[in-house]
């Protein structure tokens, strides 16, 4: 997430080229979001934006000269499972995103916080039992 965001962040030329790729594949361009390591709630929307523009991003990165794109980004988009990986992350971060959003509400009572934590633990146990997490 960070590498893709940083690749476009301060480069208007790259952003314009991405907009052109979005037009070409008939996808609405949306500004990529930065995920910060200290804020859990930034990861889900950042992944969601990348998924929405995935065909344009993939086309953009695979059309660039290899030396102009970070190797990790190039390898990511060359991998045929990369989009599935993003969908997996998207579904898992959604659970965190919703629960953390509930915990950060302004007027939570202690009982409501305990209920949110219990529900999250329940989801985690189900995932572990079904070998969803390793």
Model description:
This protein has a domain at 2-77. The longest helix is centred in the last third of the chain and has 22 residues, at 82-103. The mean pLDDT is 85. The chain has helices at 2-9, 12-24, 43-52, 54-63, 71-78, 82-103, 110-129. The two termini are 22 Å apart. It has seven helices and no strands. The radius of gyration is 18 Å and the shape is elongated. It has 134 residues and is mainly α. Helices cover 68% and strands 0% of the residues. Helix 2 (12-24) crosses helix 4.
Q: How many helical stretches? A: 7
Q: What is the terminal-to-terminal distance? A: 22 Å
Round the Cα radius of gyration to an integer and report it.
Answer: 18 Å
What order do the helices and strands follow?
A: HHHHHHH
Tally the beta strands: 0
Strand content: under 5%
What does the main sheet amount to? Answer: none
Summed over residues and divided by their number, the pLDDT gives a mean of: 85
Poorly predicted tracts of residues: none
> Based on CA inertia axes, which overall geometry fits?
elongated
**Helical proportion?**
55-70%
Provide tags for this entry.
mainly alpha, 134 residues
Structure summary:
This protein has 134 residues and is mostly helical. The chain has helices at 2-9, 12-24, 43-52, 54-63, 71-78, 82-103, 110-129. The longest helix is centred in the last third of the chain and has 22 residues, at 82-103.
Fold blueprint:
Elements: H1 2-9, H2 12-24, H3 43-52, H4 54-63, H5 71-78, H6 82-103, H7 110-129
């Amino acid at each position: 997430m960070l590498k893709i965001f940083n690749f476009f962040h301060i480069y208007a030329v790259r952003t314009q080229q991405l907009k052109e790729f979005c037009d070409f594949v008939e996808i609405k361009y949306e500004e990529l979001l930065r995920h910060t390591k200290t804020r859990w709630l930034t990861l889900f929307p950042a992944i969601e934006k990348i998924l929405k523009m995935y065909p344009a991003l993939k086309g953009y990165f695979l059309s660039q000269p290899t030396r102009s794109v970070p190797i990790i980004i190039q390898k990511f988009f060359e991998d045929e499972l990369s989009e599935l990986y993003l969908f997996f992350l998207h579904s898992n971060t959604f659970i965190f995103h919703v629960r953390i959003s509930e915990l950060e509400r302004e007027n939570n009572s202690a009982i409501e916080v305990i209920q949110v934590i219990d529900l999250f633990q329940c989801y985690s146990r189900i995932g572990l039992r079904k070998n969803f997490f390793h």
